[in-house]
Amino acid sequence: METLIRFSTDELGLEAFKPKSRSIDNLPRISSSTEQLFALCGIESRQNLNSSIHKFLHVRIKAGRHIYLSNDKCEMIYLVYSGFLKSTWADTNGNEKVLSFPMKGEMVGLDGIAHGKFANSLKALTDSELIAIPLQFCKGQNIESEIFRNHMISVMSQQLVNEQKSSFIISSLPVDAKVAKFLLSLSFKFKSLGYSEKSFLLRMSREEIGSYLGVSLETVSRTISGLCTIGVLKKNNRSIEIMNFDALKKLKRLPMGVTYKATVRSKKARNPKAHRAVEPEKPPT
């Protein structure tokens, strides 16, 4: 049975990320200093920081386990140090919607600040490591806390912009274009972290991608297969290789017949004579 990981302020205390390149190490740690945390977040400061005051603990999560569930008390926010996660929201009937797929360098748990409880749930799709940042640190009156609060505002603003873009993709684009834009967004994320933008693994299932994009898992599977058929992608199980970035960026709909069979009406339009009624032969007189 799945075990839910819960923390209290006493357990983590005040020992409390967005890497810019591979030059920032990704080795397992017990904790990070304020200076290390700021470097991982990409925060540049000209202030003299007292790096020895705060230590931010690293938490390791096994694949398939939750970091927190909806309505859990929010005492920490987190920075993804490594791994791949899934953020979800569920209604009162238990219908679940995938909101995002946080990965290395992204801040999670900000949805719990407003009311002191997490609005969403966060689950690890792979073995992951996160940095726990107590809310007490975020609310502190020292210079380190003030700098971090300003960074949090920037992160929240960027998340709002990303959500607006996601809403446009989900509501306005054809289904094939939705899947194409999703793959491009993953490619951009991997590139920004110093990894290959061309070849990567889909850590989430087709069903989870469908929930995020508002389409069925069959649609996701058909579209990815169709992109492979026309030479835009190559796939091997969950391994994806982008062969033609320009075609993927410009894609609106896949060619007729690649993923869906042509309708009877469209066949008639192409060859009306083939569907003209044949008059019966008149008997000889």
Map the helices and strands.
Layout: H1 9-12, E1 31-33, H2 34-41, E2 55-61, E3 66-68, E4 76-82, E5 85-90, E6 96-100, E7 107-108, E8 121-124, E9 128-134, H3 135-138, H4 143-172, H5 175-192, E10 199-201, H6 206-213, H7 217-229, E11 233-236, E12 239-242, H8 245-250, H9 264-270
Antiparallel strand pairs: 1-2, 2-9, 3-8, 4-7, 4-9, 5-6, 5-8, 10-12, 11-12
Quick overview:
The chain is α+β, with helices and mostly antiparallel strands and 285 residues long.
Features:
four-stranded antiparallel beta sheet; alpha+beta; Arc Repressor Mutant, subunit A; 285 residues; Jelly Rolls
> What would you say the CATH architecture of the largest domain is?
Sandwich
Shape: globular
According to DSSP, the number of beta strands is 12
Largest sheet: 5 strands, antiparallel
Describe, in plain words, how this protein is organized in 3D.
The chain is α+β, with helices and mostly antiparallel strands and 285 residues long. It has 2 domains: 9-169, Jelly Rolls; 173-267, Winged helix-like DNA-binding domain superfamily/Winged helix DNA-binding domain (Arc Repressor Mutant, subunit A), CATH 1.10.10.10. Helix content is 34%, strand content 19%. It contains 9 helices and 12 strands. The protein has a 5-stranded antiparallel beta sheet. Strand 5 (85-90) and strand 6 (96-100) form a beta hairpin. Helix 5 (175-192) crosses helix 7 and helix 6 (206-213) crosses helix 7.
